[in-house]
Amino acid sequence: MNLLALNPEQAVLWWVALAIGAVVVAVVIVLFLFLSRLLHDIRFGVAAMGEMAEQVERGSATGDLRATAMTLREIREEIRIHDDLLSR
User: Fold this and answer.
1) What's the pLDDT score for residue 63?
2) Residue 39 DSSP SS3
3) CB 45 within 8 Å of CB 38
4) Residue 9: which H helix or E strand, with range?
5) Do 29 and 36 contact (CB within 8 A), yes or no?
6) Are 14 and 6 in contact (CB under 8 A)?
7) 40: containing domain
8) Secondary structure of residue 86 in the 3-state scheme
9) Domain annotation covers residue 2
10) What are 32-75's pLDDT values in tens digits?
11) Does some domain include residue 47?
12) Do the beta carbons of residue 65 and residue 56 sit within 8 Å?
């Protein structure tokens, strides 16, 4: 006895739809696992960079990397000004 009263063609189409849905769910799960692993790797890399930055700061002679960065920005801006003047 067929409870849903589907003809054989309709039953096949429903099974195909269910199979496609199962494949889509499996692909989504795999993609979520891939994304989770990727985010874990990024988090690990950022933590390693933070530790390395702390080691560099401790090992620097001045300990003031922000002042060095500001000086480099000023030098870069000065170079741009000279380049603009010389390229005219």
Assistant:
1) 55
2) helix
3) no
4) helix 8-59
5) no
6) yes
7) 8-86
8) helix
9) no
10) 999 999 998 888 888 888 888 887 777 766 556 677 788 888 99
11) yes
12) yes
